[in-house]
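ZP: hey, is the 4-(N,N-dimethylamino)cinnamoyl-COA complex queued? I don't see it on the tracker
AM: it wasn't, my bad. submitting now with these inputs:
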Amino acid sequence: MYENIKFEVKDAIGYITIDRPKALNALNEDVLNELYDAFSKVEADEAVRCVILTGEGKAFVAGADIAQMSQMNALEGRNMMILGHKLMNYMEAIEKPIIAAVNGFALGGGCELSMACDIRIASTKAKFGQPEVGLGIIPGFGGTQRLSRLVGKGMAKYLIMTANMIGADEAYRIGLVEQIAEPEALMEAAEKVANTIISKAPIAVATAKAAINHGYDMDMKSASKFEIETFTAAFGSEDKTEGMDAFLNKRAPEFKNK
Ligand code: DAK
């Protein structure tokens, strides 16, 4: 059904794999549309509790498709930009946590795509960078904003203005990735994190994602108020009763997503 990505659901995890290895999984309009479609399926499917996004071959995503971009006029470029922003904002808005299993190059739009995920786990072979200024453009899928929010303004400027590529260790050091794994252990590491999240109360996890994402863009006072409202929603859930009862009775909780 998809031509540029693979999508399967197994044991409550939705696996989305970008599958254009000959072009190092570069993002063209079709890939962006297919990703949006797959994420909307994930969001609608109650059986899916967490998503792992990865790339086929030696790249996660080596950026927006330069061959396609080079032929675009300004209006077409703008449309592609809208598509990319729509996808990445949607990834942040959906309730299910998304883990990027960064298997190789995550450059330009690929680095931006990984930053729209909730958690990044990198293979020791991964390379990150925002090479746009070397192509005469700037990051166009939210990179100037998400990178500075993740690693701070100074480091974001350093990476974007120099277009330097960094390895997994440095990405971990600056807080761009949360874990590093050997290449052959990458998916296992991502699944371990996914399954840990899956074992927790779904409403609480979804609420935490929303509180962090929305609150981050607010001033502290508004963000605190937002946390109070979202906390109340989780506090009223049946899973809160179950989680606390399980603790008090020294048993494992059985969450029902209610
Ligand atoms: N686009 C299209 N094709 C790509 C590609 C890309 N981004 N990256 C690699 N490829 C293709 C190569 O052309 C090559 O194709 P063939 O020659 O085999 O046909 C194939 O993938 C294998 O690549 P290499 O032979 O270059 O592989 P190497 O291992 O030697 O090098 C590399 C790997 C990742 C260092 C190198 O491929 C590379 O530097 N790639 C380009 C990285 C890059 O600059 N990416 C673009 C970043 S800019 C916008 C929104 C967003 C953006 C822009 C505009 N608007 C809405 C308008 C975002 C822009 C970016 O992402």
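AM: back. The longest strand covers residues 5-10.
ZP: great, adding it to the tracker
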